[in-house]
Amino acid sequence: MKKPATYMDSVHRDGKIWGLSVAALIILVPVVLCFVFNALPDWQALGQGLLATLPMYWAVGLIEIFTYVPMLGAGGTYLSFVTGNISNLKLPCAVDAMERAGTKPGTEEAEVISTISIAVSSIVTTVIIILGVIFIVPLQPILENPVLKPAFEMILPALFGGLGVVFISKNVKLAIPPIILMLALFIFVPALNKSTVGIMVPVGVLFTLLVARIMYKKGII
Amino acid sequence: MPFSANSYIIFIIVGIVIAAVLGQSIYFLVKALKRAKQLGIAGSVVKKTVSSSAVFTIAPAVAVLLGVVVLSKTLGVPLPWLRLSVVGSLSYELIAAQNTSEPLGIGSDLVVDPSHYVTILLVMTLSIALSLVLAPIMTKKVQTGVSKIGMKDKKWGEIFFNAMFLGMISAFLGYVFCDVTYLSQGFAQGFTPVCVMVVSAVVMAVLGILSTKFKIRWLTDYALPISLICGMASAILFSDLFGGFEITKEMLEGVRA
Question: Are B77 and A145 in contact (CB under 8 A)?
Answer without folding.
Answer: no
